[in-house]
From TrEMBL:
<dbReference type="GO" id="GO:0016705">
    <property type="term" value="F:oxidoreductase activity, acting on paired donors, with incorporation or reduction of molecular oxygen"/>
</dbReference>
<comment type="similarity">
    <text>Belongs to the cytochrome P450 family.</text>
</comment>
<protein>
    <recommendedName>
        <fullName>Cytochrome P450</fullName>
    </recommendedName>
</protein>
<dbReference type="GO" id="GO:0004497">
    <property type="term" value="F:monooxygenase activity"/>
</dbReference>
<dbReference type="GO" id="GO:0005506">
    <property type="term" value="F:iron ion binding"/>
</dbReference>
<dbReference type="InterPro" id="IPR036396">
    <property type="entry name" value="Cyt_P450_sf"/>
</dbReference>
<dbReference type="GO" id="GO:0020037">
    <property type="term" value="F:heme binding"/>
</dbReference>
Amino acid sequence: METVGAPNVSDFFPVLAPADLQGTRRRLERLFSRLHVVFDAEMDERLRGRDAGQPRKNDFLDVLLDVAAHEDGKDLLDRQTLRSLFRFATK
């Protein structure tokens, strides 16, 4: 939240955005990669639990995994898309 809320020069001068003068983009990429590790671990744990016959928790993750499993070969909800949804759901 600190990184996103901090003033950024490229917000005021968009032509400077590709230079990433303050390192905001690099910092956010590191933070999101850490979040992706957590999200992947939770998804993997939940899928292993399903395979082992554990009861469902009927939460947001279960609903998304159900939709992803019933897409009939369409890759609308692949792992990358699920990560993005989790990111927005945690805000």
